[in-house]
Model the fold of this input.
Amino acid sequence: MAYVNAYQPPPPAKPAYGLHGPVPYDINVAFPLEFAQLETPRLKLVPFIPSIHAAKYHAAISDPEHFYRYYPFAEMEDPESYLLFMDTFMRQNPYSVLFAIIDRTTPDPDYPEWGGKLAGTIGLINYSPTNLSVEIGAVCVLPTFQRTHVATHAVGTLLKYCFTMPFASQSESGLGLRRAHWYAHSDNEPSLKLAARLGLKREGTLRWAWVLPVGKDLGKTPRKDDLLAGLGRDTAVMAMSWEDWEDGAREIVTTQMARTE
Done:
């Protein structure tokens, strides 16, 4: 039987705009976002807009290699590569969105209109309207705000939004999802502890889930004659279901977000 294989790899796509994205900036999201629901008295989530937030964000990271040490992407460590990567990975995917975390307890005299200081990023990734699920990811809390209320409030706010039913009351509305999941490097104890503290449950480990870029050293050594040079990464999977939310996780999140120390 005669056959051919005429496959040719497509050329890398180049956006028809600069590093800061299209103008006006299009967040390109195919699911409901109600920003009044994405804030607490101490924090709010707004779209990460590169022309507004990127310079402050990157200036706050003095050691990008250490800051992104658990991430499997080499592109995040250079500011320009980061913006191109996030545009492709997040903005161009209508089922993902990247938020800027604004800490409302810390004013920024340079940008008083923000209502607080930029404290990091968090995202919803690969929302599935078919399966009513989403990943909470891109959780990057800037060094100054680590070990504060910021991570707890940012993740807790998104969990509440994920599991609250649309138009649940006059004051509350959300996505009404069945599942929210969390992927982390299996050695990233701060990430795993944060998720567990907020009620997510460990479901297992995806072994050898990633081939890490050469230069990333927090990984497993592959076999001697492996096809690629990068180390391997195991990915821990944690998740919360709507049943968990209604069976006590909502109260866990509320309690954690009420802490003041």
Observations:
- The chain has a mean pLDDT of 96.
